[in-house]
Every structure is written in C-alpha cells, then in structure tokens.
Design brief:
With 193 residues, the protein is mainly alpha-helical. The chain has one domain (3-16, 23-192). Helix content is 85%, strand content 0%. The protein has six helices and no strands. The chain starts with a helix and ends with a helix.
Length: 193
C-alpha cells in the first residue's frame, strides 16, 4: 500500500476525512482573509514599500502555518489517544500494534499538516502579485490591488468548494463567502475613515 492509499485508509478508519476537509477550508479561509486584511491595510495606508508588505505578509503566513500545525497536532493527538483508549477498554485488548493504534499515532500528523499548510499556501498565493513585482515583473495594476483581488477570488473559490461539499448552490455558497470578505474590507475602510 503506497503512502496516499495508507493515508486514505487511516482517515477512513478514523472517520477523519470530514475533519481534514473542515480544517482545510477553515484555515484556508483564515489565511485568505488575513492576507486580505493586511493588503487592505497597506493599500489604504498609502505608500508602503513592497518589501515591507511582503515581510509582514510572510510573517503572518508563517505564524498562521505554525499555529495551524501545532494546535491541530496537540488537539488531534489527544483526541486520538482518548478514542484508542476507549476502544481498548471496550475490546479489553491492547491495540498499539493494530491499524487503530497506527491511526491514533499517524492521523494527527496528517490533520496537523492540512491545518497548517492550508493557510500558509493560500497566504502565499495571495502574496504572489507582491512577489512578482518584487522580482521585477510589471503588473497592469498596483500589486496590492492585485493581491486584494486575488484574495477575494480565492475566498470565492473556497465558498464554491463548500457549496460542492454541501450539495447546495455553488453560486450562493461562493457569493456568501465573498460577502464576508467584502464586509471585512468595508470594516477596514471604515476604520481608516
């Protein structure tokens, strides 16, 4: 069994598919919304150097990633140990070397990676216009405007994904998440005023 098949088996065994999916969307949304907030703040502040914006955004991306990995690992490891202990008590048997024991040790790492990598990768995606300009690529719009637009687009895509998962209207699900992003941007603009 290759690694991907093994991960799928362990997630299925522990009924953790939904948890991983929720963590991906929740923390991906956090990453996109955080970058939206930072880029909006830099944009309305006026003349902010791209290098400063990149440093701040990268710092936030790393912090979101590390927070996601560590918090998910700590909580998931505790939950998996509890579930394994309850199963062992019910079966009156040690399960450390069983598939359940292996899953209790391995699944927290998978969940933690999903939890931490989602906001980090999405934050990097939102930062892409800033990075392109930093390395000499000319964009048709201001780099911060492009990053803000990209954040809105990614948030809309996350909404579409949620709509697909729930079986509801894709357009409504995407629009709902986009509205949250627009309200966030509006609040940032109001604070500036």
């Amino acid at each position: 069994m290759n690694l991907i098949e093994q991960i799928r088996f362990l997630l299925h065994l522990t009924h953790s598919h939904g948890i991983a999916r929720r963590y991906f969307v929740t923390n991906g949304f956090d990453g996109a919304l955080t970058m939206l907030g930072l880029c909006m703040g830099f944009y309305i502040s006026g003349d902010v150097a791209i290098s400063v914006a990149i440093s701040a955004c990268m710092g936030a991306a790393v912090a979101l990633g590390v927070s996601g990995v560590t918090s998910a690992y700590i909580s998931e490891a505790a939950e998996r140990k509890r579930e394994l202990r309850e199963l062992e008590e019910a079966m009156v048997s040690q399960l450390d070397e069983s598939a359940h024991g292996h899953a209790a040790r391995f699944v927290p790492y998978v969940i933690a990676l999903v939890n931490g990598m989602a906001p980090f990768i999405i934050a990097l995606a939102v930062m892409m216009p800033l990075l392109l300009v930093r390395y000499g690529v000319t964009l048709p719009v201001n780099a911060l405007q492009a990053a803000i637009g990209l954040a809105f687009f990614i948030i809309f895509l996350l909404g579409l994904y949620l709509g697909r998962i729930s079986g509801s209207s894709l357009l409504w699900a995407g629009t709902r998440t986009l509205l949250i992003a627009l309200v966030t941007a509006a609040i940032i603009l109001l604070i500036k005023m």
